[in-house]
Structures are given as structure tokens and as C-alpha cells.
Design a protein that fits this description.
Length: about 200
């Protein structure tokens, strides 16, 4: 197998923007001093997730939702195979990883939405607690996702973190995507920047 381009630039940029925005939001969640930074991180998260929905329809081969639609049975079989040490290699998202993506998208919107309502005092103390529960649940899913990446990477002797940085994985030439879609990545960065600035506007 050769090194082939699998992840386009918008997918990679979106992934790391989501990582950064969630990390900033988590670290500033209890700080009054950095309250607007926390809000800005939430805005960025929503912008990135909204773009990801669009990109899941209009993106390149492995970014599209249609490329990682798996049944719960397939995901369970994949996880069972990992526990048995089976090397089931996937060029794009694997069955378990696909469910982590769907969960993170849903939790991201729910966490940001509940946070916005709480920030604008539209729900009371129960909503603030619900927001915290959603954020903690999202962190747990992130933890499982990272664990899966580590285990899968060790089994296949493939650095999946590096793949999400440079876009390349092991595969056959006919499985590669043909374009990095740079302009779309620039658009995503601009969208995220606008979202961050919007949090500080009156």
C-alpha cells in the first residue's frame, strides 16, 4: 500500500478547530473573567459543526456522511474485533468512529445551544446544570474517541493523529481523493473567525 490523500483540508481544519474550541470552552467554563472567551468558543464550535453538516453532503469522498453510515451491529462487531486484536483496516472513518462523530455533532449543538440559553438567562439553574452534564458527556465521548484512535493506530501501525494533520493514510492509489479543497478550508477559517468576533460584539 502507498501513502494516499484521504482527508481534505476542510475536514482537517474543521477537526482541529473543533478540538480547540471545545478545549477552550471546557477550560473557561467556570471563569467569570473569561466568560466572553467561553461564549466565543461556543460560537466557533457551532460554526464549525454547521459547516461540517454541509461538508458531510458536499465534501470529498471520505468526508461525506454517505461514506460512514454503519449499523449499530457493524460498530459492535468492529469493537469486538479490536478487543480480539483483529486488524480490520478502513480508509475513511471506521464503524465505531462514525458513531463518535455523530454523537459529537449532536452533543456539540446541544451543549452550545443550552449554553447560549443559560448565558441569556432563558432557562434558570436547571439549564446551567444540564449544560454542564452535556459538556461532561461530550468530554467522555471525546475520551472514548481518542482511546479508539490510539488502539486502532497501534493495531494498524498507523499514526492517525498525523493523518488528520497531513491528510495521508495507507491505501491503494484508486482509493485516494484528488483535491485538498483549499478554498473551502479558507472559507471555514473565515467563518470560525467571524463567529469568534461575534461573541464580543454588543
Amino acid at each position: 500500500m502507498n501513502k494516499i490523500l484521504v482527508w481534505d483540508l476542510p475536514t482537517r481544519v474543521g477537526h482541529w478547530l473543533l478540538v480547540a474550541s471545545f478545549a477552550v470552552a471546557w477550560l473557561t467554563g467556570e471563569s467569570e473573567t473569561f466568560r466572553l472567551v467561553h461564549v466565543a468558543a461556543g460560537y466557533v464550535m457551532v460554526a464549525v459543526l454547521a459547516f461540517r453538516i454541509f461538508w458531510g453532503i458536499a465534501g470529498t469522498r471520505y468526508a461525506r456522511f454517505s461514506s460512514f453510515l454503519f449499523s449499530p451491529r457493524q460498530a459492535l462487531d468492529y469493537l469486538a474485533g479490536l478487543l480480539r486484536g483483529e486488524k480490520s483496516h478502513w480508509i475513511g472513518h471506521n464503524p465505531a468512529g462514525s458513531y463518535a462523530i455523530y454523537l459529537l455533532v449532536l452533543l456539540g449543538f446541544a451543549t452550545a445551544g443550552s449554553g447560549w440559553l443559560a448565558y441569556n438567562e432563558l432557562g434558570g439553574e436547571w439549564l446551567e446544570k444540564f449544560h454542564d452534564v452535556l459538556a461532561s458527556t461530550m468530554l467522555a465521548v471525546v475520551g472514548f474517541h481518542v482511546a479508539g484512535v490510539v488502539v486502532s493506530g497501534l493495531l494498524h501501525r498507523e499514526n492517525l493523529v498525523r493523518s488528520m494533520i497531513n491528510g495521508y493514510k495507507n491505501g491503494n492509489n484508486d482509493e485516494a481523493i484528488s483535491s485538498r479543497r483549499v478554498l473551502w478550508a479558507v472559507l471555514l477559517i473565515g467563518l470560525a473567525g467571524w463567529a469568534a468576533v461575534a461573541a464580543f460584539l454588543p
